[in-house]
Amino acid sequence: xxxxxxxxxxxxxxxxxxxxxxxxxxxxxxxxxxxxxxxxxxxxxxxxxxxxxxxxxxxxxxxxxxxxxxxxxxxxxxxxxxxxxxxxxxxxxxxxxxxxxxxxxxxxxxxxxxxxxxxxxxxxxxxxxxxxxxxxxxxxxxxxxxxxxxxxxxxxxxxxxxxxxxxxxxxxxxxxxxxxxxxxxxxxxxxxxxxxxxxxxxxxxxxxxxxxxxxxxxxxxxxxxxxxxxxxxxxxxxxxxxxxxxxxxxxxxxxxxxxxxxxxxxxxxxxxxxxxxxxxxxxxxxxxxxxxxxxxxxxxxxxxxxxxxxxxxxxxxxxxxxxxxxxx
Length: 328
Ligand code: ADP
Ligand code: MG
Fold this sequence. Notes:
- By secondary structure, the protein is an alpha+beta fold.
- It is built from ten helices and 13 strands.
- It has helices spanning about 10-20, 65-85, 105-120, 170-175, 185-195, 200-205, 220-235, 250-255, 255-265, 280-290, and strands at about 30, 40, 45-55, 90-100, 125-130, 135-145, 160-165, 215, 235-240, 270-275, 295-300, 305-310, 315.
- β4 (about 90-100), α3 (about 105-120) and β5 form a beta-alpha-beta unit.
- The radius of gyration is 21 Å and the shape is globular.
- The model has no long low-confidence stretch (mean pLDDT about 95).
- Bound molecules: adenosine-5'-diphosphate and magnesium ion.
- Magnesium ion (MG) binds near residues 1 and 128.
């Protein structure tokens, strides 16, 4: 369909120039950008993992945000979903709604998108481009061996609850971007990077296949996202909040109690939260020693439903607000 006139460059030129020009050519892409459909080959014995995330200007980023960062993040959040289910990424499609064919914006967006795409060997195989409010929709496709996916419903009482990386950084980064808080420049740079350039934990998701009993990526805050595992697995959990991994920057910029609140409820970190049965814990600890991010055991799955938080000394810790909800 053609909704693009009367813009400075034609829809066709725009697609040719920006989206049909990716250097990466995967062998399993029989037909990529430029025809009516892409034709793709799923390896035998694999299930196709499919996920889609939308980023809307004004909701997920400010309209004047750096386009390269937007390109990075719109792919990273999708790859994070593939990581959380234990899939190896393969292809993406891109739905783009743009107020104008702004070539500076497009060039920056593609730089951010393709830089991350090549890092994970992901090929853009199609999409749609139209005029409208700035919105980026990416659908990502990956492969998981049949029955090896890390689903949300496999946690069992006694399993250890673990997370990758540090928590709360992106939540504080958002407060900095919104100018609700000013912090020393060095820390501000790190925290903004955590918000704008999340690192999808693909390697961790792949290594956890066959070992973790459940997994989710943390997009809306640990308390809320762990809650999804608990609901789907029909169990509860106990967390020790003093064990939540917090970065030196987070600890330097806010008081200890505020850091705990951010680590529990701040969104946009895109770390993995996963559960590990006791019989696999030693193996996971050994694997995690080779990771380029932290690995922390923060609690345990219990029979009784609900999330209970405690301090290191066993006293109760009360959560004020569990996490982000677009419609709350
Ligand atoms: P149609 O009208 O048949 O949907 P389009 O003109 O929308 O075709 O798209 C032409 C080709 O360009 C298709 O292969 C489509 O997948 C691809 N394409 C369009 N927009 C994008 C985009 N934003 N990213 C990647 N590929 C795109
Ligand atoms: Mg189309």
